[in-house]
Amino acid sequence: MQYKNIQMLWPGGLPAALTSSWDDGTSADRRLVAIYKKHGLKATWNLNSGLLGCSTADSGWKDYVGADEVAELYAGQEVACHSCCHPRIHTQPKDVIRDDMLRDRQALESLVAYPVRGVATPMTSRYNANLAELYAQIGLLYARASDQINSTFDIPWDFYCWEVSCHYRDQLVERSQQFCEQQQLGRLFYLWGHSYELDDHDDWQGFEHWAENIGAREDIWHATNLQIYDYVQAWRNLRWTMDNRIVHNLSAHTIYFQYDDMQICLLPNMIKNLDEL
Prior knowledge:
The protein is an alpha/beta fold.
């Protein structure tokens, strides 16, 4: 049996994808979301539902976006969980964490009118097996591990330990250049941060310049965290014959991949005999 070189491609047959994750839902999100939409970028916005609408005086820290603006502000992006009020989650009992995340998910879903399926764990940036088990139990599909750096731009095997490429203040331009110059098919760049940091460090001009440049590239698919998750899961769940010559796409996604020197497009529910190409 002659084995084939099979590599995932992103939608449209693109070799690369970029996603972002921004935490807390402070008022600086308004400006950052506008930049993302202007330049065709996508992000996941991890919100504390119990703090929405709080002023600096209320929160003792920052102003937050209002609950009444969430649906319109983040339209076309993704909203995900970040707990109700941002506790030091590693100090909480499991039942308290479960209740907090469920209430956060329910509150956010009532605002955006779609299933909320992801989480960025507050005050804990490393993978935790207990939290991963808890998240799975309550229907959350992925969790960001922002303290763990993926230096190879690989897609995650375990989405409950989703490693980032960099924080926006940690060599963003250099890391982006490495990513763009790499020839690996199916590579993924994952950026994270807090929008208020752009205010605190007066980084808006530099960040928008980066967004404009990366958004203009035609070889990158810009997607939310959940869109990345859904596509990768659809790719991994393709059904193959033992000789890797016939493949069945059971998903609702159109899947692209490289099959030796051929680019294959597999429509939803399509069965394709690759020997006939």
